[in-house]
From TrEMBL:
All copies of domain Aminotransferase class I/classII large, residue ranges: 32-392
GO biological process terms held by the UniProt record: amino acid metabolic process
Domain of life (superkingdom): Bacteria
Protein name, as recorded: Aminotransferase
Species of provenance: Thalassovita litoralis
Length: 400
């Protein structure tokens, strides 16, 4: 009998973390590696937020806090939801965790029973299905195809819902595709959900402020207020505020659900880092004027990467509405052979050979549930992106 839990056997390690770790290992060995795997802004946390963290240390705010967040941060979160989304929440409806991932994990652990189903559009963030599996549920995938701009249709959602469906797990703008649902597109989905009152909505809004061109972000409870009482709206400070390492995520929803999430957290990590919480207060309450210029920079990088990848015969790379990822399809490269005699049979082989031959680290599409493709994070410098895309062009040109 294995010493390890059978539950653990149901899941796999995070592929995105694995790619980042492999890139770091190769760099440590002296390889010239450009890592485009991590979803992490390449600029520092804004100075006023860093200063708030330092101030918290100097003022001795280093002790345990309430399990799911200090009152000041919960108030700031309520103000953010009202300001940005027109949603009214009280502090009792808010939970703060160690990153958005913990909030999602807590919510699913607190609500899923054996055979409960969670509908997940694919491609998806790699952790969604494995968290569902850890919690004892069943992930149900709905394919958002390239032809549909990586968005699911109302008909697809309708057909996926069964009597066992507990959650619809929604992410816009999306990791890994950057696809964003318009108000009308989201309203069509919420109309479906209104016909199925047993289905709750778990919406991951982590990339809310990373929206480009004419795309306007919206969230399900905002689009359909009648879903308010069965929606958990998850967000955090990691992406827009360049606070990935501070590890603060949060969510708002019905008090009974928040209380259940609090119970899970009380018996796992307890409170998030006190210093990070005070920095997050400043992030949400302080100046927001750096977000727009950062988005201009991200949009420029997006256009650089999309333009260079679409020059490659065999690759199709849509232009995303938000986040900082592109998800190019490589159907035209499958079956081709590298100069070393390796046949590109799938996107994992493509990513492996690309790294071995060029030092460019990307994440293969199968990790996100839709192939053949790969994900690039363009949250790095223009020079690095230019060089990486040039290497990808050379690698693909050498395939026969």
């Amino acid at each position: 009998m294995s010493f390890l839990s059978q539950t653990l056997a149901r899941v796999k390690p995070s592929p995105t973390i694995a790619v980042s770790n492999l890139a770091m290992d190769l760099k440590a060995q002296g390889r010239d590696v450009i890592s485009l795997g991590a979803g992490e802004p390449d600029f520092d946390t804004p100075e006023n937020i860093r200063a708030a963290g330092i101030r918290a240390i100097e003022e001795g705010k280093t002790r345990y806090t309430a399990v799911d967040g200090i009152p000041e941060l919960k108030q700031a979160i309520c103000a953010k939801f009202k300001r940005d989304n027109g949603l009214d929440y009280t502090p009792k409806q808010v939970t703060v965790g160690t990153g958005g991932k913990q909030v999602l994990y807590n919510a699913l652990m607190a609500t899923l029973n054996h055979d409960d189903e969670v509908i997940i559009p694919a491609p998806y963030w790699v952790s969604y299905p494995d968290i569902v599996l850890l919690a004892g549920g069943i992930p149900v995938f709905v394919e958002a195809t390239l032809e549909n701009d990586f968005k699911i249709t109302p008909d697809q959602l309708e057909k996926a819902i069964t009597r066992n469906t507990k959650w619809f797990l929604f992410n816009s703008p999306s990791n890994p595709t950057g696809a964003g649902y318009s108000w009308d597109e989201l309203k069509a989905l919420t109309d479906v959900l209104m016909r199925h009152p047993h289905v709750w909505v778990l919406t991951d809004d982590m990339y809310e402020h990373l929206a480009y061109d004419d795309f306007k972000f919206c969230t399900p409870a905002q689009v359909e207020p009648r879903l308010y009482d069965r929606t958990l709206t998850v967000n955090g400070v990691s992406k827009a505020y360049a606070m990935t390492g501070w590890r603060i995520g949060y969510a708002a929803g019905p008090e009974t659900l928040i209380a259940a999430i609090r119970k899970v957290q009380s018996q796992s990590t307890s409170n998030p880092c006190s210093i990070s919480q005070w920095a997050a207060v400043e992030a949400l309450n302080g100046p927001q004027d750096f977000i727009a210029p950062n988005n201009v920079m991200f949009a420029r990088r997006r256009d650089l990467v999309v333009g260079m990848l679409n020059e490659i015969d065999g690759i199709t790379c849509p232009t995303p509405e938000g986040a900082f990822y592109v998800y190019p399809f490589i159907s035209g490269l499958i079956g081709k052979t590298t100069p070393k005699g390796v046949t590109i049979t799938n996107d994992e082989v493509f990513a492996t050979e690309l790294l071995n031959d060029t030092g460019v680290a990307v994440v293969f599409g199968a990790a996100f549930g839709l192939s053949p493709a790969f994900r690039i994070s363009y949250a790095t410098s223009d020079d690095q992106l230019q060089e990486a895309c040039s290497r990808i062009q050379g690698f693909c040109a050498a395939l026969t």
